[in-house]
Write a structure and sequence with these properties.
By secondary structure, the chain is an alpha/beta fold. The protein has two domains: 41 residues, no CATH class; 198 residues, Rossmann fold, CATH 3.40.50.2020. Helix 5 packs across helix 8 and helix 9 crosses helix 11. The protein is globular. It starts with a helix and ends in a 6-residue tail after the last strand. The structure holds zinc ion (2 copies). The site of one zinc ion has 8 residues, from helix 3. The site of one zinc ion has 8 residues, from helix 2.
Length: 246
Amino acid sequence: MRRRLAGLGRVMLDAVLPPLCLACGAVVAEPGSLCPECWEKVAFLGAPQCQSCGHPFDVDPGEGMLCGHCLADAPPWRRARAVFRYDDSSKALVLRFKHADRLEGAPAFARWMARAGADLLAGAELVAPVPLHPFRLLARRYNQAAVLAVALGRQAGLPVEPRLLLRRRHTPAQGHLGREERRRNVRGAFAVNPKLRDAAAGKAVLLIDDVLTTGATVGECARVLRAAGAAAVDVLTLGRVVHPHA
Ligand SMILES: [Zn+2]
Ligand SMILES: [Zn+2]
């Protein structure tokens, strides 16, 4: 009963309070949107881009081209795409969603992801998030990647399996680590849920995370899924770090 009342209270509050910008909290016209200033600052990503990792190209080299990193060292996923560049302007958007219980952004983020990842969604058979370690889940109360995966799956009419991957161990913070160190850091950190091995076998899996940094975490998840028999793994994230000289 209490819960129902709380739910009712929320609905009433939503009707009374004006919707707020997902990044800065300014009043906006539509719920789940950005104010014009924030909209202007967010660098949305798209073609031309590396066919494999989605790194944006300044000049269009033609369809199907790969960036230097992917040519030198093929990533374990098929394609990775992101909605926007993760930088000082878009950071607030992700952090508010991650730490501040601002879940009302999820449907809008899912719409943006569906647009940025239209090619990926077209062939996807199963959507799954990068899992959080249970300790972190306790501290944050929800896994932002799972929230995005569920919202996206609902919009796209695709099955979502939030527990397809399990985090076997806590990985130390990766902020200061380089590419190779990050890769070592996440080795063995993930496993396909033994109860769901059949669900992944032979499927084109779309893996969801909030931000792609070096790709070590999603790369390890993709590797584990492929080893468990997934036919292909694509990666779709909200933000993506873009290194200027990659
Ligand atoms: Zn704003
Ligand atoms: Zn690339």
